[in-house]
Amino acid sequence: MFGLRLSLWLRPGTQVCPVSWHGFHKLGSIQKATGLSPKKVQSLLYPFSALEAYLDSSVDRTQFQLFHPSLEDMVAAEKLFFPSPSHKIDYYISAERMDHVPALKPPEVCFIGRSNVGKSSLIKGLFSLTPQLEVRVSKTPGHTKKMNFFRVGKAFTIVDMPGYGHRAPTDFVDMVEPYLLTRKNLVRTFLLVDGSVGFQKADMIALEMCEEIRRPYVLVVTKIDKCGYGTLLTNLLGLQEVVKSRTTSCFPQPLLVSSLHFEGIYLLRCFIAHVTGSIRLTNTGQT
User: How many CB atoms within 10 Å of residue 26?
Assistant: First the structure.
């Protein structure tokens, strides 16, 4: 039924935006998913659905489905990630300190995470509909040393923060904490955690920093394709226990993503579009 609804919504020959697909990731747009099986499409749009069958019946599933936008909502959000002459998507500037940070009016979201958590790969996935935009991805942990600003038209700005932990900039705290504390147009911080290994000591320090700052943030669980369902669920439930017992500013639902297989990318785009006020959702929960 879901596959039929997707096919009807995105009929063959219908494009979300009038662009050539040359150079795009094979799953960069929802439209490209129409040829896949309904089960695969479901897991791409809502990654938690692939884990439900492995959860004990006593586990409350509501906490994993608070943000559950419709397919139409995700299509609307995706349009913001298509560039056009009147809607330019580009790398703007890098900054090492707050006095280097540009004064931009649109709302901002930022991504922070441990070195090698897959942060740059995730941002590259978000921008896969703009293949000419260069988001540097390195196999060497700690590649990002500055705050990198990417403008999505006049709608919002995405900020790629330096990684913490291994090979982190020596002035990481002095660089990141003032931004999180004082940036007036920052509407959401995304704290990335490697789903294949779960919370690490450095992640707990970052989470405590977010809690002390008391601005809304969301946990994004990356690399969900790098381990089996059993390991992923164990790490996910452990993460949820930390969220319930030790946080007050964290959105209760972690967002699951795989930059490699594109699971959760559409959902994350929609979440960003929603929290920046760029779209009005027809169906969602608490954010």
Answer: 10
